[in-house]
Amino acid sequence: MEAVDRTFGRVFSERGRLYTESLSPGKRIYGERLVTVSKTEYREWDPRRSKLSAYLSVGGRAFPFRSDSKVLYLGASSGTTASHVADICPEGKVYCVEFAQRMFRDLVGTCDTRPNMMPILGDATKPEEYSVFVDSVDVVYQDVAQKRQADIICDNMDAYNAQFGMVAVKARSEDVTASPESIFSMAEARIRDRGFHILDAKSIEPYEKSHEMIVFERR
Questions:
Q1: What's the alpha-carbon Rg for the chain, to the nearest Å?
Q2: Measured distance CA(62)–CA(106) in Å, rounded
Q3: What are 85-137's pLDDT values in tens digits?
Q4: Cα–Cα distances in Å, from 51 out to 60, 135, 208?
Q5: Among 27, 51, 128, 198, which has the minimal tally of Cβ within 10 Å of its Cβ?
């Protein structure tokens, strides 16, 4: 590889593959490919392992992360995607909220490789629980597979005065009997009802079935 084209901030593309500029060179999180170009190391960002990468891979056009963004990441799991967000926001902070204790143990290990990641064991439906760790943030990113996904992110947006939100809506977590399209429409409508403006709403198939990424901002 001779060159990497910039896509968004510290996200780069080369021959259809996405990469983030590594904040901790030499350290892999999930066995991802590492590439060095002009003494700069990049980590391949697999869209089959990350809904945020999938969104960019299918042509997502709204990307609110900046180098100094403070991000509240809800449903961080073991930190796969959150580690790439940390690469993208090297001067900011990524507050990683995870509820499952087993995944949280893995998340703690991931955060050890990125000084701007903070692991928080907490319930995303109760934003007041982690207010001792988080003040205000710029972006709330949510990947929580349960009911009321739109309200959960909006509650956190309001609690931490965030300007931007991104939520990966999983239709089957809301209602297995309803069509994904109707679930997505209801989620978008609920976000608007809560006073936010939608910037982009896009299916992330074929990487994730029955998922839509919604990106929105405070009016």
A1: 16
A2: 30
A3: 999 999 999 999 999 999 999 999 999 999 999 999 999 999 999 999 999 99
A4: 11, 26, 7
A5: 128
CA 85, 99, 205 angle in degrees (round to 5)? 55
Full-model pTM: 0.95
The three-state DSSP-derived secondary structure of 182-215 is HHHHHHHHHHHHCCEEEEEEEECCCCCCCEEEEE
Q: Is the pLDDT of residue 25 over 60?
A: yes
Question: Which amino acid does the sequence have at 4?
Answer: V
Residue 50's pLDDT band, with cuts at 50, 70 and 90, is: very high
DSSP state of 117: E
Taking alpha carbons only, the member of 102, 92, 162 closest to residue 127 is: 162
Tokens of 131: 């207010």
The secondary structure of residue 177, as a DSSP letter, is T
Three-state secondary structure call for residue 103: helix
Q: What is the pLDDT of residue 1?
A: 39
